[in-house]
Amino acid sequence: MQTIINIIVFFLILGAIVLIHELGHFLTAKLFGVYCAEFSIGMGPKLFSKKKGETEYQIRALPIGGYVAMAGEADQEDNEIMKDVPYERTLKGIKTWKKCVIMLAGVFMNFVLALVLLIGIYSFVEVQTNTSEIGSVVKNKGAALAGIEAGDVINKITINNEEHIIASFSDIQEVLDNENLQLDTDTVTMKVGLTRNKHYLEKKVTAKYNNETKSYVMGITAAMKQLTFAEAIRQGINQFIEYALLIFTTLGKLITDMTHTVSQLSGPVGIYTVTAQVTQTGSISTLLSLTALLSTNIGMFNLLPIPGLDGSQVLFALIEKVIRREIPTRIKYALQMAGLILAFGLMIFATVNDIGKFF
């Protein structure tokens, strides 16, 4: 049963990301009067189709992509329906800036989806404060046994006569990290200076070593707080920028360190595995964060000037503007096919790489 739920969630996430991307292309194309014969979510055999106005809306069997069939695209030259479309209603017949807007609208919508999800998460989920205030104390652990209470604010920690000033909870984690302590014992005794109700106290705490975290643990958690909407917006934007920079760095390494980076790529199997792990935790906020990351990833990837991706369509449009003539359709089509083969090749390689991790 859990496997079925995992698969459904995986397809819903991919479907939503693809839908919002293609919707960006479709709505801007309609806005600028470009003829759209098909709006399809998914690839492969048709599962459902309905024609409304001049556009046929489709859902296809494989939720691994989607497309909008617009008049004037290189791969629509032989489409009988497109041959009677007025020139001014084709991609070739509109201004360059409008063409670029249409091609970038999918990426824009992916970024909007990611931002909306992240801001929504930070609007409803409590986050760790930037202070060293304790949120809770675990029973029968070092801190509780020493008399430390929730609401106490840790100011300093002294270990082996070395004093560490504490300003945030991350400072506590850094001090207790064994990479910094370099100890070879199961426990460590420390003096903890803290403030409680404006009074300064000192407690002697024994922390135990945790093999998983490679650090000493005294049994406390950070204080949490609910963000204001303005803070949620700022935090959501910061998280989006962090995602974008992470993906940008990874994509850059495809050029500078291709052999190593390609071996680390994840395909559909890897994405499904992560989605399944998150789904099983039952954390809606983590699932939405994953969706935001994937949406940002797809948006960033589509900006690459690889033929077949949105970035290349913008590049073609700008080149045609500069040289003041159209790039021959056969050249565009050949480049797009080469780009798609490259993209699918990477996906297949990544999928094989993912499967190899299980054996």
Automatic annotation (TrEMBL):
The chain crosses the membrane at residues 7-26, 101-125, 333-352. Its cofactor is Zn(2+). The keyword Transmembrane applies. Pfam families: Peptidase_M50. CDD domains: S2P-M50_PDZ_RseP-like (cd06163). Its main location: membrane. The keyword Protease applies. It is a multi-pass membrane protein. GO terms for molecular function: metalloendopeptidase activity. GO terms for biological process: proteolysis. Keywords: Hydrolase, Membrane, Metalloprotease, Protease, Transmembrane, Transmembrane helix, Zinc. One of its GO terms (cellular component) is membrane. Residues 10-345 form the Peptidase M50 domain. Belongs to the peptidase M50B family. PANTHER family: MEMBRANE METALLOPROTEASE ARASP2, CHLOROPLASTIC-RELATED, REGULATOR OF SIGMA-E PROTEASE RSEP. This is RIP metalloprotease RseP. It comes from Faecalibacillus faecis.
